[in-house]
Amino acid sequence: MRILGINALFHDPAAALVIDGRTVAAAEEERFSRRKHGKRPVPFSAWELPEQAAAWCLAQAGLRPQDLDAVAYSFDPDLARPADTLGLDDPWDHLRLDYARQAPYFLAAALPGLDPAAVHFVPHHLAHAASATHAAPDAETCSALVLDGRGEAASHLAARRVHDRLEPLYAQQLPHSLGLVYEELTEHLGFLRSSDEYKVMALASHGTPRLLPELRRHVYSTGDGGFHAVRVPWAELARPRRPAEAWTQDHADLAASAQHCLEEVLLDLVRWLHGRTGDRLLAMAGGVALNCVANSRIAREGPFDRVWVQPAAGDAGTALGGALHLAATGGDRPAPMPGADLGRGWSDAELEAWLKTAGVPYDRPADIAAEVAEALAADRIVAWFQGRAEYGPRALGHRSLLAHPGHSGNLERLNDVKGREQFRPVAPMVTAERAAGIFDGPLPSPYMLFVHRVAPQWRDRIPAVVHVDGTARIQTVDRAAEPLVARMLDRFEQLTGLPVVVNTSLNTAGRPMVDDPRDALECFGSAPVDLLALGPFAVRRNRMFAGGSDPHGSDPHGSDPHGTDPHGTDPQEAA
């Protein structure tokens, strides 16, 4: 079966294509539209579809809309109820339901040739659960935990996968929502709601949970698989912070208290779920599953032997989950995700055409991995653009900013490059075989969804990636899956004695992650980055801004120069 998955209603619109149970492509609309999260999560935007992402998914497989067997839309309006009956204060929420009911016709207009009857509504949290259980490796029998802001009428689902069937076990009804509580806290602390929740998690490490007893009165598990989470009096705990205002210790303490309270409730939910299933594997999805600190505590203290988190755990992942769910119920056997690199990619010839069109000086080193390692060893910042783009919010060695981890000032330097708050950490990447000697936590960790304690003897050696609490959110690199990244890490270790490189997303604050070559060149041109590794090609700042230097001049590293004819091949024609 050929199934297109669509997420559109709330936020992070995305599309995914599953053929005969295998994930072929998946991408978020923000990477095409260049609007962070694709749109704001308000009722008035519910009609907006991931048109560009969907069209690309089909083109990637050489399909037309009429070739599809089904389209999965990850929300079922028949399960929803008016907001006021759910205890939610959202007088325009009915627009979401109106738009959802008309989604088959909106999709048919966006994808000419599609039969509206091919569109199937998949319950929101069921799509989340399928995105985790059907995409995880070795997960034919496993438990699923989904937590986010809201779906049709619930904010949580506990379920179990047995072969290709998902059995719901418990759903927490609205208005109780751990995701909405964390969103409210995000806004109270002066950050952008439904966008900056990860900043609250980072800020929490700077505080102490002294307000935990008070929070436990409002947010707690109920012992039956559900929880109470509503109407937290944030202003009584700490005064609101204005967006441009410096944070105080009270703000950090409130963040720490809320983070600790969230972890306690999640542990109770996980223990209840394990008591019902006895499974060894827990698969997680939903926006709350992007809280890597909580994930690590679940892995460390919870009863499951293994915890797997969907790398696109937020609503974008429901596009894939909806498609996998229809595949499973339609008779196809879902295959685990091949990795997170499911987005757009370009051939070497196409990348070179972009460089020629941009008219920038570039060269092609004998080995771009070694070239980048040498630049990093010299304490230069590198923009790394390789292979297909990542699906989900983490840069995983395809659209990354890289730096030397051994200089503590590189944290501030990178946050300045990206325009971020200085309390936010950056992450290390390390080969899977070297990780256990440096980091203590769930391994392997290929998707940056857990935090690990940094071994004491390494903290002073890689200070740029050690958070204030002594942890790091690592990415382990599988040598077979990512040979180029592994080769770069090997060469960097040869030069520095350090098997770790700083890896943060290739973007600047408030903008989506870089996706196509134009994005990469624009980001490189506007941020103080020393080297752009665009596929096998190197673009160097000292040559690009050399003030009238000949772009056809000799390469300082001795490799063959490549001319940059400003009237060269158009990349679209080259494609």
TrEMBL record:
Carbamoyltransferase domain span: 2-72, 117-324
Gene3D superfamilies (UniProt xref): 3.30.420.40, Carbamoyltransferase, C-terminal domain
Entry annotated with the keyword Membrane: no
InterPro entries for the chain: ATPase_NBD, Carbam_trans_C, Carbam_trans_C_sf, Carbtransf_dom, DHBP_synth_RibB-like_a/b_dom, NodU/CmcH_Carbamoyltrnsfr
Biased composition (Basic and acidic residues): 552-575
A Pfam family this chain is assigned to: Carbam_trans_C
Annotated PANTHER family: NODULATION PROTEIN U
Similarity-based family: Belongs to the NodU/CmcH family.
Name of the protein: Carbamoyltransferase
